Amino acid sequence: MSDNKQENIQARFEFRTFARDLSPIRVKMEELSSPVPEYLAERESREIYLLTKHSREINCKVRDDKIDIKELMQKKHGLEQWTVLLKKEFPLDSSYCSERIFPALGVSFPQVDKKEINVNEFIDYANQIDGIQSLNVTKKRFGFSINEVICEFALIQAEGFEAHSIAVESESERDVLEVVKLIHATGYENINYPSGLKKMIQDKI
After folding, report:
1. Model pTM?
2. Contact between residue 152 and residue 18 where contact means Cβ atoms under 8 Å apart
3. pLDDT tens, 98-152?
4. Is 122 helix (H, G, I), strand (E, B) or coil?
5. pLDDT tens, 14-68?
């Protein structure tokens, strides 16, 4: 069960893709977009993703001293439906790490003497686990709203590699599919963040 029930966060259908150059799609997004709030128009962030070999249904990242884990619920009509599994601020209770976070990643949390764990300690522990890889990611994101659907174009850097990404998200799969057509992205593969980042650092994008 999600730790965010009180936030009434709804599962969303997502279309996302990665490529070396998605500038034409960005132009189309700009042409079709309604005005968006300034804080969504352009954002930069530094994030740490935890990539795991043990689960393909989890998207885990650390940003702004918070851990954010999403879980894949289903694949439908070429889209993926994700829901927030948990969001927590650091420091984290070590028992919470062992009982909730690392099991979600498909691994066991090492026994530690500390009661609370800060961000750096958390990443250090994660990197000691076989099959877990932390990845420093820098994003510059540009937000759009097309037919009241959230859209994003992002410049992504990770391990010296760069790529573009575009995303379309909504609780309605029909709305996502319609916007994907409008921005001329139907010919692109739907790739979620963990899979896209893995392809980037393997230089397959």
Report:
1. 0.91
2. no
3. 999 999 998 988 888 889 999 999 999 999 999 899 999 999 999 999 999 999 9
4. helix
5. 999 999 999 999 999 999 999 999 999 999 999 999 999 877 789 999 999 999 9
